[in-house]
Design brief:
By secondary structure, the chain is an all-alpha fold. It is 75% helix and 0% strand. The chain contains 21 helices and no strands. The N terminus is likely disordered.
């Protein structure tokens, strides 16, 4: 179903009266909504991997931050091929291809662990993210268009609300099954080296990451089979009249979309960077062990999930762009506290930023797709490519952290929230009439 370009009356433009769920297509809606949960698991397992690889490969924060660079480069590189493939084969093909790549990447963790090479893990993460790029390029516009266009933001926020549940599961899995709880002091490291035991310790820590990923890959394969055997509805933008699938140059005529790409790039960088160094923030400023820090990360993801459901409800009464702007302003204040008051006060401020981050990705995505018509699929692919912000801003935060401490690195998310607020209040309306908001 293509997002309508026609004006609507005030009564019909009120999202309180629009159906949230697509009539007659609940099974495909369920199967795709479950994908939001599924890709949330590896996304936030990365936050555990960063800390784990600092131990198992004895690397710096900046080097560990390359986990996110490899991961989100996979999103960037494959988003456009995903869009081109789906222009010919449809969304369903994108789901299946994405799940198969996802599964392949997780299975590559086993030979990477046997080889004991950090670069092989980065390659496996790149393959995983390549699959997730297909899934996100397909899922977000599919859900946004599967039903009434006036409730697209609410519907996408609802489906996206299951993503933090996957994120929470990922961190819990990582904390319970990857973190060993063994943190060696420099004296213990020296003692183990003198006894020629240190290499065996590093190898055992590396092997701990394998089993969770093998299980995850198996689940992805099963879900690919379920989707393959399910009949999916034809979305109008897949079969535009006259074979018009849109053109990239046409997107330049939509300033609200171009600004959405920038906002998404910055927001994703803020989200990924915030969670990537959250465990280290807890340990540096409250001196808690890694498992406790991992549970704090789980808690902030719970706040993120709660925020998704609450914001989906609030959008019945508040315009999505205005709610997005209000949440961004809250995070400017909270990130400032985390920078200026490192410690327990800063920790709780940083903890709360996840609640206000919750609606940002799906709302920016849905606002950016407004009135794109036949350009919806390629527009969606560019919004997914903007996820590369996680690859750029996370190592940048790592460099700042090495020079000025973890707290100083959180100036990066603070600046991004300023842009998101500006986009919400001004940029999202650029080139659009009020009835499109």
């Amino acid at each position: 179903m293509q997002i309508s370009n026609s004006a609507v009356s005030p009564a019909t433009s009120d999202t309180r009266h629009q159906a949230l769920f697509p009539t007659g297509h609940l099974l495909p809606f369920f199967l795709v909504t479950a994908l939001f949960f599924l890709w949330g698991v590896p996304n936030n397992l990365n936050d555990v991997l960063i800390r784990q690889f600092m131990k198992s490969f004895a690397i710096t924060r900046f080097q560990a931050g390359l986990v996110q660079s490899a991961f989100y480069m996979g999103y960037f590189v494959l988003a456009m091929p995903a869009a081109l493939i789906m222009r010919k084969l449809g969304y369903k093909a994108g789901f299946v291809i994405g799940l198969l790549l996802f599964s392949l990447g997780t299975f590559l963790f086993w030979p990477a662990a046997l080889a004991g090479r950090y670069v092989f893990f980065l390659l496996a993460l790149f393959v995983i993210a390549s699959g997730l790029s297909f899934l996100e390029t397909a899922s977000n516009p599919f859900i946004a268009q599967l039903g009434d266009p006036e409730s697209s933001e609410r519907r996408l926020n609802f489906s996206q609300a299951f993503n933090p549940l996957g994120s929470i599961s990922g961190v819990l899995i990582g904390t319970a099954f990857i973190f060993s709880g063994v943190e060696l002091s420099s004296q213990q490291v020296d003692a183990m080296k003198s006894q020629h035991l240190y290499d065996a310790y590093l190898r055992s820590e590396t092997l701990r990451v394998v089993k969770p990923y093998l299980v995850l890959g198996t689940v992805a394969l099963i879900w690919a089979i379920l989707i393959l055997r399910t009949k999916f509805p034809a979305i109008q933008s897949e079969h535009e009249a006259g074979g018009d699938h849109g053109r990239f140059r046409d997107l330049l005529r939509y300033p609200h979309f171009m600004l959405a790409v920038v906002a998404q790039f910055l927001y994703v960088g803020a989200q990924v960077g915030t969670w990537s160094y959250f465990i280290q923030y807890v340990q540096d400023y409250t001196h808690q062990p890694e498992k406790v820090a991992g549970y704090f990360l789980t808690g902030t993801l719970v706040a993120f999930g709660v925020g998704r459901f609450i914001s989906a409800y609030l959008m019945r009464f508040i315009a999505p762009n205005k709610l997005l702007g209000a949440f961004a302003l809250c995070n400017i204040v909270l990130a400032g506290v985390a920078v200026l008051r490192p410690g327990w006060v800063g920790l709780w401020a940083l903890f709360l930023t996840s609640f206000f981050m919750s609606l940002m990705f799906p709302t920016i995505f849905a606002l950016g797709l407004k009135k794109l018509g036949p350009n919806t699929k390629i527009g969606g692919s560019l919004l997914v490519m903007a996820i590369v912000g996680g690859a750029v801003l996370t190592p940048l935060m790592g460099l700042i952290a090495e020079a000025h401490g973890i707290a100083g690195a959180y100036l990066v998310p603070l600046v991004t929230y300023v842009f998101v607020a500006a986009y919400a209040f001004v940029g999202a309306k650029a080139g659009l009439s009020e009835d499109a908001m």
